[in-house]
Amino acid sequence: MNREKALRLVKDQLTERRYVHTLGVVETAIRLAEVYKVDVQKAELAAIFHDYAKFRDKEEMRQIIIDQKMPQDLLQHHDELWHAPVGSYLVEKEAGVSDPEVLEAIRCHTSGKINMSSLDKVLYLADYIEPGRDFPGVQQVRDSAETSLDIAVIQAMKNTISFLLKRNQPIYPDTFHAYNDMTMKVKERKLT
Which residues contact 95 (CB under 8 A, 6 or more apart)? Predict the structure, then answer.
């Protein structure tokens, strides 16, 4: 699917503000993909569609999670997490995107997961650091992204976990597992 068609499909699903965010994620994902030798076309496509389900009706998303036998613990956590796995499903069904790597990057772009691929990391990070984002810690993550994809993703996850803890919010287990997995792998590489 070409960029223009994909952007048209996405624009119909988003508010103008979220569409501008998406364009920032796309450009950031392309740049990160080039730096870290990730397939640029896959990074671009995943970035375009990453928030496809962001504004879907909550009941529709709840039903998709149930019907598609997605992890049911999603329903016990904040519905902001739902748009990623539901979006992955809908992007395949409605937009015809069939690349499993692109769909997986969309699926885990809010929570992370154990054994994230480089494409998963690029999308996760691009969503976090795109130019429209402005919150404490984002510039440090942007700076880290210039030299280490893994360190930048770890910092982004750490910031997210800290943010949720300070607000007494539950943290989705995949995020803890992703953070631990990446932190241990980085430590192992430093020891060898």
Answer: 1, 6, 9, 49, 52
